[in-house]
Amino acid sequence: MLRSPRRLLSRVVAPFLVASVALAGCAGSGEETIRSTSETRPDRTENGTEATTPDPAAVVREAAKAPSEQGSMTMEMVMEVDGRTIMSMRGTMTADGRNGDLTTSMEGMPGGEMRMLVVDGVHYYAFPSLPAGKEWVSMSPEELVDATGVDPSAAPGVDGASVLEMLSAVADDVEELGTDELFGVPVTGYRAHVSAESVIGQALGSGLYTEELADEMAGTLPDTYAIDVWLDHDGLPRRQTWSLDLALPGQGNTTVDYRMDFPSWGDPVEVTAPSPDVVISMEDVMTGGGALSRD
To answer: What are the C-alpha distances in Å from 78 to residues 213, 244, 268, 294?
Structure first.
């Protein structure tokens, strides 16, 4: 028997949910941080007359609006720890986070990968080794809070949308990285920075984090982190990467690298809840009504 379903849940769900939201939260949702791409900086044309070009910081901040404007996104995420890939994720999600179909692979995960459905805000996980006749574990938003310390209802669009939300809080010193091509479209790269203190404080104030999780994050994350984002000609993010040097209790210094890709935007997200006959609630699992067993 697996003695701690909560431990299995946290290992499978929390690394992406918490780590990505740790950077995103509800950062910069106010007027002070979100600015329009109409902001410009002076430049000069070849004949010496003054011209204006969009301010890179404003362009990056504007990209945070992509999920709400497009309605849905296709995502591919990879997380590495000290150069070793320990987790990856792919799938589609609506911008409000209430519907999606995602598949996660994680180092040491029984069966190699796990599928997650989100249907009208309820999460369904295809955990291995469920009781006979059961294929999915359902979990309410309240149970997610209890398991991870993160309240998804306080930050709609946890996953890709909230990862991009951090862009709304970037500092003014944005560096242009040049051009490239991703997923068959030309992109322009930008390097920006975000403050951990402001992100964590706003996440706590909004109710996204519990005080316990906020304290843990404040003692773990660096003061600021650099974010590289690649935008297509429509201003839509196609790739976002960042790296964190963390001091984890009992584990020493660890480098965590993230890459989030967005191959497409605005695709329909059609998901259907599993039949109730094959679903067991996380509450039943936690109370012993349906124990998870080892392979």
So the answer is: 23, 14, 23, 27
Residue 127: phi and psi, rounded to 5, are -65, 150
Average pLDDT of adjacent 10-residue blocks, the chain of 295 residues: 35 38 33 36 53 82 90 91 88 88 81 86 85 88 64 49 77 93 97 81 67 74 86 95 78 84 95 95 72 44
Q: What is the dihedral of CA 73, 28, 223, 57, to 10 degrees?
A: 80
pTM flag (> 0.90): no
- Tell me how far apart the alpha carbons of residues 262 and 267 are, in angstroms, rounded to a whole number: 11
Q: Are 134 and 281 in contact (CB under 8 A)?
A: no
Pairing between strand 99-106 and 113-119?
antiparallel
| Tokens read off for 154 | 């306080």
Whether residue 90 contacts residue 102, with contact meaning beta carbons closer than 8 Å, is answered with: yes
Q: Tell me how long the chain is.
A: 295
Q: What element of type H or E holds 200?
A: helix 196-206
